[in-house]
Structure formats: C-alpha cells, structure tokens
Amino acid sequence: MYLTERNKSNELIYLEALAKRATLTAQEEKTLKRLRRGHEGEKLYDTIFDEVGHENLNIFRDIWLKADKSLTQIDTLIITDDILFINEIKNYSGHYKYEGNMWKIGKLQISDDPLIQAKRSVSKLVKLFIENKINITTDYNVICPDPYFILTTQDDLCRTKVIKRDVMKQYFRGLNQHQSWDRSARITEIIKNKIVSEPAYEATIDPERLTLGRQCSKCCSFSLKSHRYFTLCTDCSHKDSNKNHIHSAIKDFHILFPGEKIKIRAVRNFLNNEISDSTIKRYMGEFCLLNNKGRYATYTLRPNHTR
C-alpha cells in the first residue's frame, strides 16, 4: 500500500505557474518539458503497479530523507521484512546505449547516470540503518515505463538492474512475493521519522515578465468578459467565479514569490486591480490563515491549498 502521495516537484510547480503568466526562456521550456515527462513516467509507474496490486507492501513515493547529514530524494521505496527496494524511475523514450559506464542517446551522453543515482540512495539508507542497528539487505532498480524505450548494452549489471515496460508487471509480482510484517513495520517507522519536506525551489523572477489579471482556469487566456460575480472566457467560453480567480491568484503569487508576504493589496495588484479589496478579503480566510490583523495584515496559504 502507498504510504505517501506522488507529487509534482517544487521546480515543476514553479515553472507551470510561470508558464501561465510569462513567456518562458528556451532553457525554462526545456526544463519544463523534462520535468513534466518525468512526472508522467512516475504516474505511469504507479498505474502499472496498481494493476498488479501492492496491498501487502509498504511503499513510500516521492520522499526526501535526511540521512548521513544530507538530503536524499527517492522516487519509490518498497519495504519488506527481508529486503529494501529502491526504484529510480526514468521515463526515457528512444534508443539508448550503455557502455563504458556511460549512458548515451545517439551521440549525446546523459549527464546523470540513473544507476549511480540509485546506488547513492542505497548507500545513504545503509548508513541510516547502521545508525539504528538494523541489518537489512538493500536492492535497487531503474524502472523505465515508456513502451518506446530501447536499451542496447553488453553490461550484465545494467541488463539486470534496468526494468523495461514489458517486464514491469513481472517485476512487481516478484515484489509481492516478499512478506511485510513486524520487521517491516519497524523499518517503516524509522523511514517516516527521517522524511523531510522537499527543499523550496529558489528562483528570482522579474515581475515585469508577468501578465497580471484574471485568467481562464481552463485555457489560461486573459481575454475575459467580466460580469458581476464571474467571467466568461472569450476564447473557450469557460466560466470562472471571482472566488476561483482569487484562489488561483493567491496560489500563483505564493509559488512565484515565496519570500513575499501575502497581503490583500499584493493579491489585488496581481489581479491587475480587477477585483476589489473587500471581495478579496471575503475569501482570504477560506484559503489562508491570518497572521496578524489590522491595516498591514498578512496571510499564509493553508497547507491544503498550496498545490
């Protein structure tokens, strides 16, 4: 069973919010495409695992661990009584080669070796369990769920450790043969106590890049026809309430300017003065926690509204 959610990374959330209100640079576009594809691969991995079933397994997804005085990110960690499995998920597509400890697609060498990434995570976990006086076997695999991924290699270790789409269900059925009882419960608790929040994605944005105002929640157009309590998109005819516009603006502001305090005036400016302070204030309590009252009141976005 899944013990944690599969979430988008903070960098992906930032770039998606930025793309709604600004023209991305070529590098930002490239990064956004890569991160979206990676997240799609993780969701596909989960879908296939769900089809096989995992009721008797303890599974952590998309976690950050404080181990060996540093942070380690793990795509999927599967805990059983006898073995700890780490799955590094790569949504590669196309013809890849692995030779001389290098990954290549065509003539281009991949900078990050997923096998090394997975082994590094294993090393961190081993040290963590040594600290807790637990002796447990660890294993790792690189999972490639895209059906159009092709791998050519003469390396036996790579052949063993890389799990392609056509054998994923067989691999998952093998995991289900392992038991998860009392020992795995203790290990699970240790992992839970070491989980930390993903580090904030730090970026400085020029406010001049942004298009301000109310935005269609369906097609992201700013071409809206305003009515008293709602807008109609002139591009796709979608209807949005002012409440939804305020909620979206608060979230986008929080994502794009994480160091800025959320104030009614800041939200109004972000909406290009298209909604009054009194209307914004009416809904702030629903989406935010009030930090201090008065003329200079500031707010914090409620945890269940941050993503």
TrEMBL record:
Residues 37-148 form the NERD domain. Pfam families: NERD (PF08378). It comes from the Bacteria. This is Nuclease-like protein. It comes from Salinicoccus kekensis.
